[in-house]
Specification:
By secondary structure, the protein is an alpha+beta fold. The chain contains nine helices and six strands; from the N terminus they run ααββαββαβαααβαα. The longest helix is centred in the last third of the chain and has 19 residues.
Length: 239
């Protein structure tokens, strides 16, 4: 795509993504979820967060969306893919990636679990990050930025700050045991989310293996806590 088209249109057509999702999920419906699911998106038309909630299907059959559509909506990253136009009956949405407002959706998941299971006092939340970009901005760089200077930087600043504020809040939240699994530096791997070259995919895998090896004790603790929760009477959610 030429630089001019990148400014005017989404970077990618959604066709290939939709074909892969349809091939993988086929006609799978949301009601087949084995545990309560909360999947984030954002409705441009309503200017409101939109959560796909599998546990709402029992009282509202309209929430039984096709899983292919849900995956397409939650992956519609602005500038990369166009929004998904989702309709059912009187419902009409223009949905984009929920990362625009919950780049780390852990707090939303915790709040939903609290609402679903008010009788439980303690919850275990495990948040899995995709790697820190290590893209700090020095004062000397930013002090004279205007619209053009901030154009490429403001989105990472917003997304990182939202994610890190969730870490702060959940670490202080009473009744919540919070674990954040985050690679502090991607090292040889690129942080661009559309870099799918074989070399970068291999580097990402190596980074993940190294993280798992160096955090084995923490991961064992998390597994023990989650297993303890699964042994309780609360179906499908933490402890």
């Amino acid at each position: 795509m030429t630089p001019e088209k990148k400014l005017l249109f989404p970077k990618y057509s959604p066709d290939a993504l939709e074909e892969i999702l349809a091939e993988f999920f086929q006609a799978t419906e949301f009601k087949t979820a084995l545990t309560p699911l909360l999947i984030s998106s954002y409705d441009l038309q309503g200017q409101l967060p939109f959560f796909f909630k599998s546990h709402r299907i029992a009282s509202d059959p309209n929430y039984n969306w096709n899983v292919t559509s849900i995956a397409r909506a939650t992956s519609a990253a602005p500038t990369y893919f166009p929004p998904l136009h989702l309709t059912k009956g009187a419902e009409d949405y223009a949905l984009v990636d929920g990362g625009v407002f919950v780049n780390n959706p852990s707090l939303a998941a915790y709040a939903e679990a609290r609402s679903l299971y008010p009788e439980f006092a303690q919850f275990v939340v495990v948040s899995v990050g995709t790697g820190d970009r290590q893209d700090s901005i020095a004062y000397a760089q930013a002090k004279e930025w205007g619209l053009l200077g901030w154009a490429k930087q403001i989105v990472p600043v917003f997304m990182d700050s939202v994610s890190e504020s969730v870490d702060y809040q959940l670490n202080l939240m009473p009744g919540c045991t919070y674990h954040r699994l985050q690679v502090s530096h991607l090292q040889a791997a690129e942080n661009e989310m559309d870099d799918v070259t074989p070399e970068n995919l291999a580097n990402l895998q190596e980074t993940a293996k190294e993280y798992i090896a160096t955090h084995s004790a923490e991961l064992a603790t998390i597994c023990a806590e989650l297993n303890e929760g699964r042994g309780s009477d609360m179906p499908g959610v933490g402890r």
